[in-house]
């Protein structure tokens, strides 16, 4: 398992290819960093939501609106779904 970088929350999120290579354990580490406030879930998920082909613009806006109030479990599930979609495409 590779280290999770401290600069992961750069202005435009992180490289989706980096996310696609994460193991389930590394995703859990990311989730822990989100829950402790080390990583902003909006910054992390924004590029994945923007680029997803499975949502129209209204659905994307919905996720942006509710993302700040989502539980850590919901964020992890959304992250898993978006990464899985990215890997399949």
Tell me what you see in this structure.
The protein is mainly alpha-helical. It has one domain (16-88). Helix content is 62%, strand content 0%. The protein has five helices and no strands. The longest helix has 17 residues, at 72-88. The chain is globular, with a radius of gyration of 12 Å. Mean pLDDT is 78; it is low at 1-12.
Topology:
Elements: H1 16-20, H2 24-35, H3 41-51, H4 57-66, H5 72-88
Helix pairs in contact: 2-5, 3-5
Descriptive keywords:
single chain, 89 residues, mainly alpha, 5 helices, 0% strand, globular, disordered N terminus
Helix content: 55-70%
Oligomeric status = single chain
Strand count: 0
SSE string: HHHHH
For the biggest sheet, the summary is: none
Please, how many helices?
5
What's the N-to-C terminus distance? 24 Å
Count of discrete domains: 1
Classification by helices and strands: mainly alpha
What general outline do the C-alpha atoms trace? globular
- Please state roughly what percent of the residues sit in beta strands, choosing from under 5%, 5-15%, 15-25%, 25-35%, 35-45% or over 45%: under 5%
Radius of gyration, in Å, reads 12 Å
Low-confidence stretches: 1-12
- Determine the mean pLDDT: 78
Brief account:
This protein has 89 residues and is an all-alpha fold. It is built from five helices and no strands. The protein is 62% helix and 0% strand.
């Amino acid at each position: 398992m590779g280290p999770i970088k401290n600069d992961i929350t750069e202005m435009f999120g992180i490289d989706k290819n980096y996310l696609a290579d994460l193991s389930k354990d590394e995703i859990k580490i990311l989730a822990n960093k989100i829950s402790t406030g080390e990583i902003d879930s909006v910054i992390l998920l924004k590029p994945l939501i923007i680029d997803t082909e499975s949502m129209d613009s209204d659905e994307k806006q919905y996720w942006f609106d509710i993302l700040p109030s989502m539980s850590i479990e919901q964020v992890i599930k959304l992250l898993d779904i978006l990464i899985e979609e990215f890997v399949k495409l």
